[in-house]
C-alpha cells in the first residue's frame, strides 16, 4: 500500500512490465488474480480449474523459478528453502495438505514499496532480454541524436527521437511503441520508456528509471518508477520514488531522497500504522493513484501519499498523507468523494478515458476505509 489499495500486487510495474505481464510472457499464459473482495469485479474473471497454478503475486519470474513452477503437480507447493514461510507457488486447492517442494535458487520479491525502485534496474535488464529476444530494433534516423553503446538500446515501432543523448554504456535503454524523446534530453541506462510515453524537452533521465505507458515527464528523474498515465512534465527533482497511475506533479515539485544527516530513512507502513525503518539511505516519494501535487510542492524524504490526495501550499507537508486528503503544510481536510471523482474524470478525458462504475466502486471503498481510520 498505497499501490495495492487499487490493484493486486502483481499489477505493480517494475522494470518494463507489470509482475503479471512478466509471468504471462515467461509462461506463455494469461494470468488471472485472486485478490481482495472489493478488487475482484475488476481483476478476477473465470473460476479457476482444479489444476490451476497459484503464483505468489509479489514474486518476479526468472527461468529457474518458472521451470520449477511448471514441474509442480496437483497437490504440490513450492517453498523457499531459506524462508520456509514464503510460498512461491502451488498447484490445486487445499494448500495446507500440499506436498512441499523446496526452491533453492535466487529470485526477486517485492515485499515493501521501496523494493520497487530498489530492484527496478535489474528488472529493466531482465524485461529487456524478455521483450527484445529474437527481435530487431528500429533504427535511429535522426542525425542529431547521439548514441553510446547502441547494442544495448532497443527502439520500438513508431518511437520518435530528436536531438537527444542515449547513453547505454552502463545499462540498457528501451524506448516503447510510439514513445517520444524530445530535443536536448539526456537518458542514461538502465531506462525504460513505455508505450506512448514522452520525455519532454531538456529532461535528465538518470539510471534505473521506468516511465510507464502514456506518462509525460521532464526535469530530473533518478531511480524511479511511474506506473502509467501520470505526469511530471516540468522541472524539479524526483529520486528513488514510485508514482502510481493518473498522478500529476506540478511545476518545480521536488522530492528529497536523502536526509541531511545521511541517516536511515523511515517510511509509513499502512498495516502497522506507524513509520518503519527501510534499511536504506535513499528513499523519496511513494504516491498512490490519482493523487496530485501543486506547483513548488516540496516532499520530504520517505513521504507516502495515499490515493486521490491533493497536496499544495508552502513548506513540507507531513511524511504521511492519507487517501482523499486535501491541503498543504499541516492543514488538511477530506477531499469530497464526488469532487475527487470529477477531477479524476477530467484528467482521464484528456486521454479519451473515463472511470467506469467498477473503478468508482474501488475508489469509494478506499475513501470509506480512509475516512474511518485517521492515520495522521
Brief sketch in words of this structure:
With 376 residues, the chain is α/β, with parallel strands linked by helices.
What do you see in this structure?
The protein has 376 residues and is an alpha/beta fold. It folds into 2 domains: 3-111, no CATH class; 115-372, Hexapeptide repeat proteins (UDP N-Acetylglucosamine Acyltransferase, domain 1), CATH 2.160.10.10. It contains 7 helices and 35 strands. Strand 26 (266-269) and strand 27 (274-277) form a beta hairpin. The model has no long low-confidence stretch (mean pLDDT 93).
Q: How would you describe the shape?
A: globular
Enumerate the spans where pLDDT stays under 50 for 5 or more consecutive residues. none
Tell me the fraction of residues in β-strands, as a range. 25-35%
Number of domains: 2
Largest sheet: 9 strands, parallel
Under CATH, the topology of the largest domain is which?
UDP N-Acetylglucosamine Acyltransferase, domain 1
Count of helical segments? 7
Q: What distance separates the N and C termini?
A: 16 Å
The appropriate CATH architecture of the largest domain is 3 Solenoid
Radius of gyration: 21 Å
Identify the CATH homologous superfamily of the largest domain. Hexapeptide repeat proteins
Mean pLDDT: 93
What is the tally of beta strands? 35
Strand order within the widest beta sheet: 8-11-14-17-20-23-28-31-33
Amino acid at each position: 500500500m498505497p499501490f495495492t489499495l487499487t490493484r493486486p500486487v502483481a499489477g505493480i510495474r517494475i522494470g518494463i512490465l507489470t509482475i503479471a505481464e512478466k509471468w504471462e510472457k515467461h509462461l506463455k499464459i494469461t494470468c488471472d488474480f485472486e485478490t481482495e473482495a472489493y478488487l475482484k469485479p475488476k481483476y478476477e474473471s473465470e473460476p479457476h480449474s482444479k489444476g490451476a497454478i497459484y503464483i505468489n503475486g509479489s514474486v518476479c519470474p526468472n527461468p529457474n523459478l518458472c521451470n520449477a513452477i511448471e514441474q509442480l503437480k496437483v497437490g504440490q507447493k513450492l517453498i523457499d528453502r531459506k524462508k520456509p514461510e514464503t510460498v512461491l507457488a502451488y498447484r490445486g486447492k487445499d494448500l495446507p495438505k500440499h506436498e512441499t517442494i523446496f526452491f533453492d535458487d535466487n529470485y526477486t520479491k517485492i515485499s515493501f514499496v521501496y523494493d520497487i525502485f530498489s530492484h527496478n534496474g535489474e528488472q529493466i535488464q531482465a524485461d529487456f532480454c524478455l521483450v527484445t529476444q529474437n527481435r530487431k530494433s528500429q533504427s535511429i534516423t535522426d542525425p542529431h541524436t547521439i548514441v553510446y553503446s547502441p547494442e544495448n538500446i532497443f527502439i520500438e515501432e513508431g518511437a520518435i527521437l530528436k536531438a537527444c543523448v542515449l547513453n547505454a554504456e552502463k545499462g540498457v535503454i528501451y524506448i516503447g511503441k510510439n514513445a517520444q524523446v524530445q530535443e536536448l534530453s539526456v537518458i542514461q541506462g538502465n531506462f525504460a520508456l513505455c508505450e506512448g510515453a514522452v520525455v519532454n524537452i531538456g529532461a535528465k533521465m538518470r539510471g534505473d528509471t521506468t516511465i510507464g505507458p502514456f506518462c509525460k515527464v521532464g526535469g530530473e528523474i533518478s531511480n524511479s518508477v511511474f506506473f502509467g498515465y501520470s505526469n511530471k512534465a516540468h522541472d524539479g527533482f524526483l529520486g528513488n520514488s514510485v508514482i502510481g497511475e493518473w498522478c500529476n506533479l506540478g511545476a518545480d515539485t521536488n522530492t528529497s531522497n536523502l536526509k541531511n544527516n545521511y541517516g536511515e530513512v523511515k517510511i509509513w507502513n499502512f498495516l502497522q500504522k506507524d513509520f518503519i525503518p527501510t534499511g536504506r539511505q535513499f528513499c523519496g516519494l511513494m504516491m498512490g493513484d490519482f493523487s496530485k501535487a501543486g506547483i513548488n510542492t516540496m516532499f520530504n524524504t520517505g513521504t507516502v501519499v495515499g490515493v486521490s490526495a491533493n497536496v499544495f501550499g508552502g513548506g513540507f507537508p507531513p511524511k504521511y498523507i492519507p487517501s482523499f486528503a486535501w491541503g498543504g503544510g499541516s492543514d488538511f481536510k477530506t477531499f469530497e468523494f464526488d469532487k475527487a471523482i470529477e477531477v479524476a474524470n477530467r484528467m482521464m478525458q484528456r486521454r479519451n478515458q473515463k472511470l467506469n462504475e467498477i473503478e468508482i466502486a474501488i475508489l469509494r471503498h478506499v475513501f470509506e476505509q480512509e475516512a474511518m481510520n485517521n492515520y495522521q
